[in-house]
Write a structure and sequence with these properties.
- With 131 residues, the protein is mostly helical.
- The chain has a domain of 80 residues.
- 49% of the residues lie in helices and 0% in strands.
- Helix 4 runs antiparallel to helix 5, helix 4 crosses helix 6 and helix 5 crosses helix 6.
- The radius of gyration is 22 Å and the shape is extended.
């Protein structure tokens, strides 16, 4: 969903769609405006659409190919947009994830278990056919 279409959403619908409020969204766009390159070709997507592309990539766990197709850009362009938005938001130090891990009943977050069990694959036996 592009920015033009998302403006029609209510506050609760927008938060449900993107995972953030309108005020946070506009703060992200403002941070991107501070990092617009002075030279070069103008981007195909507006800053608002770039932020929405990045949010949809993060929120929906879709592949870059699917996100790029939704916004009418190529997959490498979508990848560059995601990296650029991430770098700008990280450099601003206004947006971050909580540092503390959630406390759960009996959960030890210092233990990692990896299942690397070998399981034989059952394949049909090859049959020899005579022509």
């Amino acid at each position: 969903m592009k920015y033009i279409d998302s403006k029609k959403l209510s506050d609760s619908q927008f938060k449900r769609y993107t995972g953030i409020s309108w005020s946070t969204f506009y703060s992200m766009v403002e941070q991107l405006k501070m990092n617009i390159p002075a030279k070069g070709r103008p981007p195909k997507l507006s800053l608002e659409d770039q932020v929405l592309l990045c949010l949809s990539y993060w929120r929906e766990y879709r592949t870059l190919f699917h996100v790029a197709t939704s916004y009418g850009v190529s997959e490498p362009t979508a990848s560059r947009i995601v990296r650029h938005v991430e770098e700008c938001l990280i450099q601003s130090k206004l947006f971050n994830l909580p540092k503390a891990l959630p406390e759960g009943g009996g959960i030890d977050w210092n233990v990692v278990i990896v299942d690397a069990t070998k399981i034989p694959i059952q394949r049909p036996k090859k049959t020899e056919e005579k022509l």
